[in-house]
Amino acid sequence: MDKVNAHNQIKTFQLAKNNGEAIDFIIKSTADIHDMLEGKPELMDHPHRHDYFTIILVEKELGGVHIIDFKEYQLEGAAIHFVYPGQVHQFLSDSRPNGYVINFSSTFLMQNGISEELINRVYLYNSFGDSPPMPINELQLHTLTYIVEQMKSYQNGDNFFKYEALGALLKLFIINISGACNLAKLNAEYDTSSNRLIREFKQHIERRYKQIHKVQQYAELLSVSSDYLNRYVKTKTGKSAKEYIQDKLMIEAKRLLLFTEMSGKELAFELGFEEPSHFASFFKKISGQSPIAFRQSVREMG
Fold this sequence. Notes:
Largest sheet: 5 strands, antiparallel
InterPro entries: Homeodomain-like_sf, HTH-like, HTH_AraC
Mean pLDDT: 82
Pfam family, one: HTH_18
Keywords: DNA-binding, Transcription, Transcription regulation
CATH superfamily of the largest domain: Regulatory protein AraC
Strand order of the largest sheet: 2-9-4-7-10
Shape: globular
Radius of gyration: 20 Å
Number of helices: 14
CATH architecture of the largest domain: Sandwich
Domain HTH araC/xylS-type: 195-297
Helix content: 40-55%
Protein name: Helix-turn-helix domain-containing protein
Number of domains: 2
């Protein structure tokens, strides 16, 4: 089988039990997953996507990397790794990992009254395609591991209210993550008007990146000037509003290049560029490669 066809088979996975039954929440140990895959190269971790949230709790330093949206993050000590629905990721460990993988759907969050903002606030100041793991200390690891062990107990038990308990424990876990990562200032400021501007700006980009590519147009939606939006976002995050827009377009372009066979022309129109040449110039200016060269280089690594 050639590499192009192999990459065409990369899937977006749905949340399900081993028997294929659809579910909305499951927790597994990383060691169990590793043992299940060991000796089965056809099942080993390859770049893939989920239609659900994943939180990986790594308990100690490992050899290897976690690749999320084409960025490599070293596995360096106890940490929390977030993977959002739709993100392309690959977990490569040189040793038998110790930790847990928590998977849950947006439906599970809704059913248990958990706002997605509890998760989103952790990465409020991060640009698109930037999902670094969050280091945790020994005390924080102990607290989170205790919550995880309770999750496992309820998941494996037959308590009539097990899913309500799992929802409560997941919410507690996420709240502890927010506190564990020195985000007290961010959390205190999260609902202020200034940070609301950043939240709404990122929300508009998520919804409108195919139609709107200019800072001025987003600024008009937010009732501020383009200069003010650029300066404020730059002050808070280290990146300008223009760079946020470019980051989103680049991540989506890379996903389409890897997971589809769209031509350069088709991809340009899919992302809202008026001319294929404009898209090609944009992609090469940011990445240093043409779109087709990027596709070939990533597939050759597979």
